[in-house]
Amino acid sequence: MFARSQLFADLPFLPPAFSLRPETAADETAREALLDAAMGPNRRRKSSEAIRRDRLAAEGLSLVAESDDGELLGTVRLWNVSAGTRSGEDVPALLLGPLAVSARCEGLGIGSALMRRAIAESRWRGHGAIVLVGDAPFYERFGFHADAARKLAMPGPFERHRLLGLALRDGALTGAQGLIVPTGRSLPAPIAA
Question: Model confidence over 125-147: pLDDT tens digits?
Answer without folding.
Answer: 999 999 999 999 999 999 999 99
